[in-house]
Amino acid sequence: MPVAAPNSLLITEVAGQSVADLAQRFGTPLFVYDAQVIAERIADLAAFDTVRYAQKASSNLAILDLVRRHGAVVDAVSAGEIQRALAAGFKAGFDEPPQIVYTADIFDRETLDLVAEKQIPVNCGSPDMIDQYGERCPGRGITLRINPGFGHGHSQKTNTGGQQSKHGIWHTQLADCVERAAKYKCPIAGLHMHIGSGTDLEHLSQVCGAMEAAAASVGPSIHSISAGGGLPTPYREGDQRVDLAAYFELWNGVRDRLAGKFGHRVSLEIEPGRYLSAESGSLIAEIRAVKQMGDNLFYVLDAGFNNLARPILYGSYHPMSISHKTGVGNPAPRTQQVIVGGP
Question: What is the CATH architecture of 33-279?
């Protein structure tokens, strides 16, 4: 299975562009994204019928536009994200597959108004959402996000399944939700499961069995299933990449068995977020002070956790490199232990 390449301590370019030139032209802190990497990650998932980008990973309009031009569609978790998707060229409506889907555990009032007005398909993450949507938009199809009763992620804070997570409809409440949807004549057209971010193939594969059982209990109104996201992104040298071919075969088997049971085609969707965007992005910051504090040497940057929140929120590791202001440097630099901090 492929593994992550070692991180270079000293670099001169990001996405084929000179780091020194980028910093001089645009200033720092500066985010730079490599469009080719995003395109490659979308292509990695071409076996799935639909690639739906979870834009919470990075909702930059240029990235959304790039994702759209490479054939992916988009997920939104707020009214603001719906508006960003529309601004990037995605279309509202109930196309197959829908270009924008609202996935959340609640409707705030603004978002309920927006999905009703713009005809944005909804993936309901709570029983209350079914009632609120059904009263407002009776007869419209919905999908349900199910919490299968277990979860896994690279951090407990990114574990979005099980009883410690507020995400999704608890699996034992599915029958009640079917009745709620029927009350408003809202067909349940699909199911979605997502157990966490940065999990592994073993845990991801457990979702398949839970999805198959849930979809079978709902019945032939199901026309699509979503494997969710959570595909791991390598950050450290030697981190393994998930075996996408094996993962697809697991889900394809579920899809085929459900299609045979229902007597019609079932579409298979995947919802990557960080998997598409993380490896493409770099944050360029300038060392503005070097401070010796007792035994510790600090490099103090003009970027902090207000620019990159993942380490402070999740304890996440991100590799770092040095780029000389002149664009050149010692090819075999002396190394030393430092603490890197923001302003």
Answer: Alpha-Beta Barrel (3.20)
Rounded Cα gap, residues 91 and 88, in angstroms: 9
For residues 260-277, give the mean pLDDT: 96
Cis peptide preceding 138, ω within 30 of 0? no
pTM confidence score: 0.90
CATH number of 1-29+285-343: 2.40.37.10
Distance CA 58, CA 296 (A): 34
CA–CA–CA angle 32, 159, 37 (5° rounding): 25
- State the sign of the Cα–Cα–Cα–Cα dihedral 53, 148, 114, 119: positive
In the chain, domain spans = 1-29+285-343, 33-279
pLDDT, tens digit (0-9, with 9 covering 90-100), for 21-77? 999 999 999 999 999 999 999 999 999 999 999 999 999 999 999 999 999 999 999
CB contact burial 49-85 (16+ within 10 A = b; e otherwise): bbbbbbbebbbeeebbebbbebebbbbbbbbebbebb
Which contacts qualify for 302-308: CB closer than 8 Å, 24 or more apart? 302/28, 302/29, 302/342, 302/343, 303/28, 303/29, 303/342, 304/341, 304/342, 304/343, 305/342, 306/342, 307/29, 307/283, 307/342, 308/283
